[in-house]
Design goal:
This protein is 34% helix and 20% strand. It is α/β, with parallel strands linked by helices. The protein folds into 2 domains: 148 residues, Rossmann fold (3-Layer(aba) Sandwich); 179 residues, Rossmann fold (3-Layer(aba) Sandwich), CATH 3.40.50. The strands form 2 sheets. It has a 7-stranded parallel β-sheet with strand order 9-8-7-10-11-12-13, sandwiched between helices. Strand 12, helix 13 and strand 13 form a beta-alpha-beta unit. Helix 1 packs parallel to helix 11. It starts with a strand and ends with a strand. The model has no long low-confidence stretch (mean pLDDT 92).
């Protein structure tokens, strides 16, 4: 069986798609999966064990014909199934032009005539997480995939020897507990102003003098303000725009992750790192990190800036206790209305 798996972007969406891919390969181990993504995710996925081939679609601004021309080789192949997990215009265009006996998409996707099979992403009784929605797209091919079959992915980089950046960080840590703080998010409404997070980090340095901190920024995020590099270099490591395989290794050596709704937060969750996440207007029932090891701070107004500093500090303290001292106090915290 040859399958074209159209996901394209973004980091969080790709990460939450991988449990469905792994479950599919458990049912169909001989299936050949060609996974369609944008170039910035190739490093993360090129050695992923259940992907047989990566098809890279460049981010183009001159229309879809140029994309078709540049990706002509794999688009001319024939597939038994083409599955569109993305749902946008470009993914629908790829699905339309690909030679596939069966083509699958969600009922709510545009251009429904492109598909031979459409799937409803709603069930009676409870809302579905995105991980489960991705698995439902496989129903026309392999039937229902039980929720317990949807497991966290295993990234090859997590099992490899430390890369140079990570090795240097481990030497700097000298065995100290490590808290990774990620103040960024691609969209402003998902994060605090950087200055607010940095001011709180100053407080944490005084509150927890035995901890080392990392200040991380992703490749698509704005630059940190200059004061981010004014922290004591023996206490705070500024980690700017690391390649994704390095980030995987970085997270495996992280005792606690603190961040907002972004792809790196989802990666930390899938790597079983305890996380504190400030959540905004995106439905957490569908999009929350796929882990029980989290404290999620969510204000009824759905505004991230309405979450008080004290609530974040309390959550970090609780999760540090659970991480370093073995208590079980993970929870979802909803802020009282103001």
């Amino acid at each position: 069986m040859r399958v074209l798996w159209v996901r394209l972007r973004s980091l969080g969406d790709i990460l939450l798609n991988l449990p469905a891919l792994d479950a599919f390969k458990q049912v169909q181990p001989d299936a050949h999966v060609t996974y369609v993504v944008h170039p910035e995710f190739v490093e993360l996925l090129e050695d992923y064990p259940t992907i047989d081939c990566l098809a890279v679609v460049p981010r183009e601004s001159r229309g879809y014909l140029r994309v078709l021309f540049r990706t002509e080789a794999w688009l001319r192949e024939s597939y038994d199934w083409v599955i569109n997990f993305h749902g946008g215009n470009l993914s629908a265009f790829i699905t339309l032009w690909t030679h596939g006996k069966g083509k699958v998409g969600l009922e709510r996707f545009r251009f429904r005539s492109v598909y031979t099979h459409t799937v409803n992403d709603q069930i009676i009784g409870r809302p579905l997480h995105t991980v489960e929605v991705q698995a439902r797209l496989l129903y026309p091919i392999v039937g229902a995939i039980p929720r317990e079959s949807l497991r966290k992915p295993v990234f090859p980089a997590a099992r490899q020897p430390p890369r140079p950046r990570v090795r240097s960080l481990l030497e700097w840590l000298q065995g100290r507990p490590f808290v990774l703080v990620h103040p960024g998010a691609r969209f402003r409404y998902k994060r605090w102003p950087y200055e607010r997070t940095l001011a709180l980090l100053h407080q944490w340095l005084r509150q927890w003098p035995n901890l080392a901190f990392g200040l991380f920024m992703g490749p698509t995020e704005q630059d940190l303000p200059p004061q981010a590099r004014a922290f004591p270099p023996d206490r705070v490591a500024v980690l700017d725009r690391w390649p994704l395989p390095d980030v995987v290794q970085l997270l495996t050596h992280t005792d606690l992750y603190v961040g907002f709704d972004n792809g790196i937060t989802h990666l930390a969750a899938l790597l079983d790192r305890p996380i504190v996440v400030i959540w905004g207007p995106i439905d957490p029932t569908r999009w929350a990190p796929w882990t029980d090891l989290q404290i999620r701070l969510h204000h009824p107004s759905q505004r991230v800036d309405a979450v008080p500093d004290e609530a974040l500090t309390q959550a970090v303290r609780l999760l540090l206790e659970a991480t370093l001292y073995g208590t079980d106090r993970f929870r979802h915290i909803t802020m009282p209305s103001t």
